[in-house]
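Exercise (ungraded).
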Amino acid sequence: MTANLTVAVDAMSGDKGTGVIVDAVRQVLAARTDATLLLVGDPAEIERHIGNNPLPEGRAQIVEASEVVTMDDSVAIALRNKKKSSMRIAINQVKEGRAAACVSSGNTSALMAISKFVLKTVPGIDRPAICTTIPALHGHTHMLDLGANVDCSADHLFQFATMGSILAQAIDSVDKPTVGLLNIGSEELKGNGQVKEAAELISNSSLNYIGFVEGNEIYTDRADVVVCDGFVGNISLKTSEGLARMISHYLKEEFMRTPFNKLVGLVAKPILMSFRKRIDPRRYNGASLLGLKGVVVKSHGSADAVAFANAINIALLAIDNDVPAKITEHMSQSLSSIA
Amino acid sequence: MTANLTVAVDAMSGDKGTGVIVDAVRQVLAARTDATLLLVGDPAEIERHIGNNPLPEGRAQIVEASEVVTMDDSVAIALRNKKKSSMRIAINQVKEGRAAACVSSGNTSALMAISKFVLKTVPGIDRPAICTTIPALHGHTHMLDLGANVDCSADHLFQFATMGSILAQAIDSVDKPTVGLLNIGSEELKGNGQVKEAAELISNSSLNYIGFVEGNEIYTDRADVVVCDGFVGNISLKTSEGLARMISHYLKEEFMRTPFNKLVGLVAKPILMSFRKRIDPRRYNGASLLGLKGVVVKSHGSADAVAFANAINIALLAIDNDVPAKITEHMSQSLSSIA
């Protein structure tokens, strides 16, 4: 088994348990016959979920891990005291060349810290960033950072722009993805110091920089990549989650209000389902931890099998396109052009 | 005519022209028979829109202004060179005691700067903040700051919390509004320095502080008042606008996809209209500029008559409840308790 197209899957983390992850593995192995998956965790638990329906011969392997990082574990505990956790051992597979990527639904802070400790960052990248895909009017947007880095310098934002651009190239097969910096609209007060300084750095680089984008433009395809610090990015993403949930709830309420409405709702069901599918967060599950010497993808804690399979597919796309190597190459060029 | 329940309306700013504002004035005067409105602007233009349908005798008055602050005017131009603008003269009405509030659809930065220059801030308030009402699952949330202040200290956030709490008391008639600080979810990195420090200040005050709230909780009624700096607040609000527009667009597309879908859409129209009404941004138009010695309300530039009337109603509620006096009183108590 080569590391090429092998993904180590943390089978123990996440709110929905190992069964969901085994189902996701099954889906991916059926669709991607070139991929191999390592299921990292308690062998008995994993076997129990595989049951009488074995995974494809030779393309799935169980790797034992005796501990689990919980959602409440501090980074310190996860990093120092849980060296046999499924998360740690999944990341170790990448470090040791047995897998090219790792996917986990576990604690984001722990995943970030362990990945950084075990895999290290690419030279020229100070801090890894979290990047996810967000649906937009006529396609989607890649947005980063989404919470790994609370306070960011202009230089960090520039690094995020570079990494986001490389990821967008890989995932969307576009040659020169457009890059925008998230900023506020007020003309007099256009942004804080870091954003203004980052704008200069990015516009003087080889990136396809299109300037500032405002919050609403995340959803209008103005830029392929939207760059911001982790505080702003996290709040923007969570705001969207909250609003989408409220709107869904309102829509449901209206179609349940009277017997007539319920009847119309029944007739409109395929239309409403097709609408829901378009904003289904499961389709966008899988955030990339960029800037590491290896591919690490974070799945939502409450991901179901469809959503988790999507996160594995994002990891496979990153391997297919050699994202870490491209980031390394780009950064070494930037570093040598400065030197 | 007393200043009591008199609102000066900037009749020249905004994208939709004076006609929309005259219509809004008509709606408000019909609904609030205790209110008086001053229409500030070009008398000929205002008269033209009033036409043959006069406004209620003695409850509407035109105040002449020969200039207009445009959306492109810099703050410096608006403040120094346009002393006869409808915006400036509307604010002057408050300063000179001829009105208790001013409403404008004009340039936010100019409105903020002129209001601050003419009316001054309440002692103890360093910077006015912009506060608006946002729909939430079972009610609404007041959120501030939304873009007036890009970089905020912990002390500023504390001032915003105080002002937001007083506004929520006034608008919702709740005794002790709950106050939350907008923060990110990551446990290890809970927020930046200012947010952590502000949390201490607010939790040691008499405000009904409930702790950190995450972006999604803006829409779940967890807090009556959500406090953040203007950079984050603006991006969160604009993100919501963009997402709501995209979702609306998707929903419309699904109901237009096939002739059958169109037919179902026709039958479902009253349900969809009722849904749309619940997320109609016009219902929430009117952001309060808090911390000034007077009531100033900013309407959206593209507000129609319904939306603009809502902004005037928010100004009337703030007068009804004496919001500036309550902020002054609260701040003087805080200041004397420190001294």
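Further reading is listed at the end of the chapter. For now, observe: Chain B touches chain A through 64 residues (CB under 8 Å). The first helix of chain B runs from residue 18 to 31.
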